[in-house]
Amino acid sequence: MAQDEVYAGPMSESIPSSVASFAHRRATTDSIASFTYFQEDDEEPSFSDEEAILDASDDDEDYADGDDRDLEAGSLHSWRRKSSGRSAASADRPLLPRHTSHRSDTRDYGLKGSFSQKLYLDTEDLTIVIAGFNNSIPGYLTYLAICFLTAGSPARLRECTWVVIENQWGEFTVHPITVEAYGQPLSTVFDPLGKEAVNGYNYEEDPVLDFLRILDYRYMKLIYHPLEDIFMLNNSWKDPNWNDVLSLRAGLDSDERDVRNQVFGKNMIDIHQKTTPQLLLDELPCDSLLLAGDCIINESMLTGESVPVSKVPMTDEAMELLDDVEDDEAVALAMVVRTGFNTTKGALVRSMLFPKPSGFKFYRDSFRYISVMACVAAVGFVASFVNFIRLGLAWHLIVVRALDLITIVVPPALPATLTIGTNFALQRLKKQQIFCISPQRVNVGGKLDVVAFDKTGTLTEDGLDVLGCRVVHLPDMRFSELLEDASELLPSAVYERDPTVNYDIHKSILYTMATCHSLRMVDGELIGDPLDVKMFEFTRWTYEEGLKNTTRFGEPRNTAPVSIARPPAGMDIDIDDSHEGNEPVQIELGILRSFDFVSQLRRASVMVRQHGDRGVAVFVKGAPEALRDICQGSSLPEDYDDLLSYYTHRGFRVIACASRYIKNSSWDDIQGMTRFEVESELQFGGFIVFENKLKETTTEVIDELNDASIRVVMCTGDNILTAISVARECHLIGPEMQCFVPHFVEGDLKDPKARLCWESIDNGTYQLDEHTLTPLARPNEIDGSNPYAAYNVGNYTIAVSGDVFRWVIDYGSEEVLKRMLVVGSVFARMSPDEKHELVEKLQSIDYCAGFCGDGANDCGALKAADVGISLSEAEASVAAPFTSRVFDISCVPKVIREGRASLVTSFCCFKYMSLYSAIQFCSVSFLYASASNLADFQFLFIDLALIVPVAVFMVPFVVAIVVTLILSLYMLLDPAEWLARFMELTEISLGFAFILLLLAIIGFIVAYISERYFFPVLAKLIGLAKKKWGGPKRQKQRKEYKILLEDVKQHRK
Predict the structure, then answer these.
(1) How many CB atoms sit inside 10 A of residue 969's CB?
(2) Residue ranges of the domains in the chain?
(3) Does domain 467-691 have CATH number 3.40.1110.10?
(4) Is the keyword Amino-acid biosynthesis assigned to this protein (predicted)?
């Protein structure tokens, strides 16, 4: 097997699909910072040393010389590595021995090197710029003396001692460069590009790399490539010896292990080092490639998949088993291919340590307001300073009192006060079994415009129950009635069977349900996909896993264990007429070979041999649409589509079954067949029908969200007709609403010139315009007896399948894509990455998007959403900001409700604290003018009695106002003598006190009227003025989805 296949095949399946499959289709946000080194990708670069980004999809293209030297970390080709012994490291020798070059390049590469580079980290969806600098003693001293002057000077990446890194969100960090002695060939660190010369040097000679220049960024090790003059990730490096399974299983010697440890780092994810006994008992995180045996693992923390996943070993070409290898010491053997923060779990930990900036406008505006108030405080400080000098006060008193104004105008408690509402919301959510690991997302939850739901396990119950089977009857080629029990499918006693029915197909479906699955026996319990578990339990058979060193089914001794399925005791399934007395033959089905479910093929299959039989039976199950193409046309009943449509329209899940029999097949023949040879010329058997009920709270919650004008979307991997049926049942699609479904009329998914037809699922005569997605007028076909027919055509929604969604994104117009996003209600047959991409596309048209799923294949969408709510176990909660222990969608309105309450509270606290500081600033400023000030206990009374109860403890507002008003009136009108001395109150007449009270009442009335009536009108006038004279940049930008919705409504009219 070629080394590229070893890494690109199994490894891509071991990485969460949200990272591996569609990363090349995601747009990367450009930087908004004004850093010189960060240039827009679509502009002509203004610096000769800047690197561009090569998309991951271009990995298979040849390397181009000259100005097209675009690189992406980890995307270099693997060619070969020459053996080279260690060489002595010397600090006086150059970083890499080079040959004389006469190559002329206008860019600043080669011997001189570059000053900066741009790098796209595809696994993090992060774009950074690395700029090198050197320290100088005079410059450093000057920097300390004059901080606002830049004392450093740019340094080339090959020589710098530290770097400055900026990402696309304008965040800057400074990192040192670590230099380590190495003395190994360059190909032990990086995959060679090819044989052509690069910057004057030839990879054919595989030069020695004396030193490693290492940059640690977010726990990722970037190593400087001296020929490419950039820092690169090397986690895609491949050993040339990875060309067959035998060499993989040979392992590494101690010297090679030390070299790998130096290049890739220790296998640590910022955890305490384990002792040797702990390593023998505890788990050690790593990414592995299974070489022998099989295993079942829980990937819920990594992928969000709550169902244990079965893994099969990596084998040689065409999955050929090794018949000369035996491993008696372990059940499974795997090769570690990634360790530490390079693993999938490490990437997940990194995503938690360095989350994407929320960019909540309220927080940005809050700190801008604080900056403005700081300017006001500076003016007050200067005015008070001058006034105190005029009054002849002592210098220490002048400084202290003038600085008091700054703490009054800019209250230090303001940022903390803004989080008070959030903390109370978190406590209330916790009492309702909703937990949050990202408190800043609580306020965002109050701004949600759209919420996307997964179907299975979220809107519907977790498990699927087998409703029954519909079997093809021969010879009339019609489906049987629904067989709701295994005894109806195949009666155990011969005399109970209908003599007019051919039970061979019945038997094949029963065998399919008993053997075609990925179940494993763990501690006496079947573990695996819930659908497979329900299907197997329906048969009431028994399953025995892993009988080794047997030859009962014609297999050699030194082979993988064979699993066996047996019927329940006393069930006479088969009758061998050759036996006297027609005694029943003992049934034992040995599973000799399995082809796991592949999402692209949408089917799974097994090769099964019955004990004592020389042939082998192939049993296949999968999506009805997928099995149609691999079955013999003559075996498909005429009502195939009608029956399938009947069940899917009613929300049932349908699995198709097919089989074939291959005579006289040896073990070598079985193992030598390809999957496509096995899964061909099949005999269709029938349908297995599963029912999936709605959860009790689903419809109620959907209605509540609709009443709140929050858009609801379904995003599922299930059949589109089933999804539409469930959407209608839970009121996600209204009963009178037309639902249009697109399909290809010309071309297919991979054809850029393909055409789509958008037809109503209920009436094919109703269609949408393929360019505007608005209903086409068909007045002659509207039923005049139904006065609401024309209205219903205009009241429509869209249901889109994953292949159409993919085509629209890749080849469709931007207008069609945006209209599909604002009109679509159901997105079916969506892969995990397409769910992720749907959320990102909704955000691209200014939706504040939430996603709620049960954790199965939703990890990417949960992380991408503004508010992700996981209904899965706590271990999968790291993929989402919110986790609900109550496994239904009732948590969604609770999060929105608390988010809105927290948001309103934050706004009110901000206004309250701002008003308090403004009032106190004015009071103190007037007192300073007369060389007076509030007493210490008066400041304390304002803080403890007026501010803390409302802004911090959130006591009921009316109670707080009444209590503080009573205390204030008491001190104003008739305070006790001891209280007046304690509070240092100035004695005033009763008449003046009533004047002050009257002014306070008038001020309250004026403030109330202004806030209710005057300021809204004033704000509207200011907005109109900005719109008229401010230019387009100063106008408030409306959310794009609102503009699209208005346009769609206009077309509906």
Answers:
(1) 14
(2) 31-234, 244-357, 467-691, 734-827
(3) yes
(4) no
